[in-house]
Design brief:
577 residues, alpha/beta, Urease, subunit C, domain 1, Diaminopimelate Epimerase, Chain A, domain 1, seven-stranded parallel sheet
């Protein structure tokens, strides 16, 4: 009797279990991927932290607890994160993608501390090269040397008498060459400085070998032209480098016509697992074509967007080309270079506004920022309805007159800034600007306190493409060694929450993409990054040793640390709605 009762009980229990399983499978929806048991920083103020994400067809469907998400969905794949932190895919709001790939292939002078070190590197590069082949490199910074004066061609002539040498300063706003390169470019004492550029000269008026800002163009005709294959290889190298740092999109500043076509070809060939927001190079034929045709929004499943125009108001602070209201503190009589004046900026900005394009103007010095803000004010004030959501940008906004800081938020202008610029420049920036003017430099907190937001980037290859270095600099204002103690003008630090937004949702907003990316919430692209450590809670120095476990674009793992390579050569599938 007892056995019969037990048998009946077990039969009922099994039947109920089967019914429960059937109801579960009927009730839950099959999706492509579940991420569970993580710590998900959503950058969504309504749901700041979660545990699990359901993803299907490249889109986020649900964000919640692991129990909740599993009760609603079954995944073709389930990834147990074992408590690892998840963030929206990082966005670099100011970068130069192809240039990064070029740097990874050519002579990298970043971090060099003396002329002798550079010359030894040039000498090694020449070994085995035929006479006459160009030696091209980037990354020197005279501020790192014991003698902080600009170099001359003479020292390069000794190590490279038969090979032209072309070395780009770290900021891209000055080039150092040898005599052979100047001879090939037909540059001599009678060569005039172009508007917005400067050829450094000795006491006799002879070029010393350093060319600043627009003067760099005098050398371009002698340089060997890269092939399309060369350029595609550079882009591929750069994309892989970005993915391993958790970047899922960059705002590429100043792309030429050939660069755009390279992006198209690579996407169509399945060789571009990435997203890029393009700011066009200001070349007449290219700009005329696009202002007639209009922007290209989210093409190829969101891989390519062309909606902005890049302009230059001045040069860089390190090469003393940034346009200042008063002369440089360490170079009396020099107020820097104005590359584009206010009337031209007004004209081009109005063209862009009428054509539906965003304007992104490089402005580092306080005088350059005044010029750009005045031009924007005139255009936006007369733009009517088109001005309401123009989202014009100033790239770098590095040195500001305090009176101009509130104008950004008032005009709706975005200060697109690079936190590591502050920590790279801090050893010498005050010498350039003086103790009073430095208070308006790299002024993140002052801008944020007015209600402005700051889309953050790196300006790579000027700085490392690693957004964690930018995050660390933003919250500490210290270098990798923790100097200076307490931070450099620490009152200008961002909070961790602000720094995370600066590399995610604020970057998305700066590209008109806040409705499709930049946070982890239903309906947005499944662009995510998983890290080894929780950058929102760990001690700041540990941020610099954190690593990317996985980078995901549109629900596809495009980089995983276990293989140290991109998984899946094809571009991510476009999300469907």
């Amino acid at each position: 009797m007892n056995n019969k009762i037990l048998f009946r009980f077990m039969s009922v229990a099994i039947a109920l279990l089967l019914v429960g399983l059937i109801l579960f499978w009927v009730r839950t929806k099959q999706v492509s991927l579940l991420l569970v048991n993580g710590k998900v920083y959503t950058v969504n103020d309504r749901q700041p932290v979660a545990e699990a994400v359901a993803i299907d067809k490249g889109l986020i469907l649900r964000v919640g607890t692991t129990k909740e998400v599993k009760s609603m969905y079954t995944g073709s794949r389930v990834i147990d994160l074992h408590g690892k932190p998840v963030y929206p895919g990082f966005i670099d709001s100011h970068a130069h993608l192809e240039n990064l790939g070029v740097l990874l292939h050519e002579l990298n002078l970043d971090g060099t501390t003396s002329l002798l070190e550079i010359c030894e590197m040039v000498g090694k590069e020449i070994a085995g090269r035929p006479a006459g082949s160009w030696i091209i490199g980037r990354g020197w910074d005279q501020n790192r040397w014991s003698d902080k004066h600009f170099p001359t061609h003479a020292i390069l002539d000794r190590v490279a008498p038969r090979n032209p040498v072309y070395l780009v300063r770290v900021d891209g706003h000055a080039v150092w060459v040898n005599q052979r390169a100047m001879d090939l470019a037909k540059i001599g004492p009678s060569t005039r400085d172009p508007a917005g550029g400067r050829i450094l000269r000795d006491e006799a008026g002879k070029p010393t070998g350093v060319f600043v800002d627009n003067a760099i163009g005098l050398l371009s005709g002698a340089l060997p032209e890269p092939t399309e294959s060369d350029r595609m290889s550079s882009v591929a190298r750069a994309v892989h480098e970005c993915l391993r740092y958790g970047l899922t999109e960059v705002h590429d500043m100043g792309v030429d016509s050939e660069g755009i076509e390279i992006y198209r070809k690579m996407i169509e060939q399945g060789k571009f697992p990435f997203r890029v927001y393009v700011a066009l190079e200001n070349v007449k034929d290219l700009w005329d074509r696009y202002r007639r045709s209009g922007p290209e929004l989210g093409g190829y499943g969101g891989s390519l967007t062309i909606r902005a125009l890049k302009l230059y108001a001045d040069g860089a602070l390190g090469s003393r080309g940034a346009a200042l209201i008063e002369p440089y503190s360490d170079d009396p009589g020099n107020r820097g270079l104005t590359l584009t004046g206010e009337p031209e900026l007004r004209d081009v900005a109005k063209e862009a506004l009428d054509a539906g394009f965003q304007v992104c103007v490089h402005a580092i010095g306080d005088r350059a920022n005044v010029i750009v803000l005045n031009a924007y004010d005139a255009v936006l004030g007369a733009g009517g309805g088109k001005s309401r959501d123009a989202r014009f940008r100033i790239e770098h906004a590095q040195v500001l007159d305090p009176a101009d800081i509130p104008r950004f938020h008032k005009l709706g202008v975005l200060p697109s800034m690079q936190p590591t610029h502050a920590t790279s420049d801090m050893p010498w920036a005050e010498a350039r600007l003086g103790s009073k003017r430095i208070l308006g430099a790299y002024a993140w907190r002052s801008l944020l306190n007015t209600g402005a937001i700051i889309p953050a980037g790196s300006d790579f290859p000027v700085e490392s493409p690693d957004p964690l270095r930018g995050f660390y600099a933003a919250i500490t204002r210290q270098d990798a060694h923790g100097d200076p103690p307490g931070g450099w003008y620490p009152e200008q630090c961002m909070t961790r929450e602000e720094a995370l937004k600066a590399f995610t949702i604020w970057g998305a907003y700066a590209a008109f993409q806040e409705n499709v990316k930049g946070s982890i919430e239903p309906g947005k692209w499944a662009d995510l990054v998983v890290l080894t450590d929780d950058i929102m809670t760990i001690e700041p120095p540990k941020i610099l040793t954190s690593r990317v476990v996985m980078t995901m674009i549109a629900g596809v793992e495009v980089y995983t640390a276990d293989t140290s390579a991109a998984r899946g050569a094809s571009s991510p599938p476009g999300p469907t709605r």
